[in-house]
Amino acid sequence: MKAVAVKEFKAIPQLLDVAEPAVKEGFIKIKIAAAGLNPFDWKTIDGILKDHMPHVFPLIIGADAAGVVVETGAGVTRFKTGDKVYGQVLHSPVGEGAYAEYVAVPETAPITKAPENVPLADAAAAPTAGMTAMQLIDKTGLRSGQTLLLIGATGGVGSFATQVAKIKGIKVIATVSSEAAAKRIKSLGASETIDYKKAPVEEQFPGGADALIDLVSDAAGFEKMSALVKRGGAALTTQFVADKTRLEEKGLHGGNFETKSTAASLDALRALIDSKEIVIPVDRRLSLAQAPAAIAESRERKSKGKTIIVIDETV
Hints:
The chain has 315 residues and is α/β, with parallel strands linked by helices. It is built from ten helices and 17 strands. Helix content is 27%, strand content 30%. The strands form three sheets. Strands 3, 5, 6, 8, 9, 16 and 17 form a seven-stranded mixed β-sheet that branches. A six-stranded parallel β-sheet has the order 12-11-10-13-14-15, sandwiched between helices. Helix 3 (127-140) packs across helix 4. The longest helix has 14 residues, at 127-140. The chain starts with a strand and ends in a 5-residue tail after the last strand.
């Protein structure tokens, strides 16, 4: 089968011919409609998990996928052949990922029934970004009428988080880099935007946010942004750059945030998608052959919404 993989850590991804995965006991085999591109994909190439999980090479990348179950192994009870599913296929060993025509994963992986009111391929854009956004908004503890300062709003997580916040009645002040980006994020529910290319955010926003979600800043940037939050508020970063002591000095809670991926979280996300309360922010649909270039662009943080790698929309 065709797959995008690397032959060693930090190598440039290539479109390769690799063996189709076999189904073991407790596993399901999925024919993939599309994979969702995430920054975690190139971080995996760089070896972010090499000290935590075994790897196999050539290492097929990709955590998010949507597709159809075509085979089940002995003992499988959650799924049957023909089920349309979406979720995260990352499992041990790392390297049996979503950028491929087929993937075999444990039925215990964070995978569940796919949304019914969107194309199956589009559902591949939702798992990681959608779950992260929902859990971030919950972690802030914000209530209707309160204000969220959202840094890095126009990427995948930010696009989902803006919509989740709107559902809860939270006022979102989103950072953008252009008029087009401002228009798009406002269409998703942001109340105000700040163009950080015109002047530093702290010069345009006087402070007083009830919470901060920062998806892009380094440690120095997060320090500046957290100063714009009221005492007693929350300041969260997905970049693992928070200093707990500094946050406590400012009277803030939160800090470094890590998504907890579960089938239950995916079920909650599916409900919001099927009820049309959330739109999956697909920005681009690319082929498997175009995936290596898209990964390189992701490294440069040029995302606007989500990119999906379309593999087979006929499934």
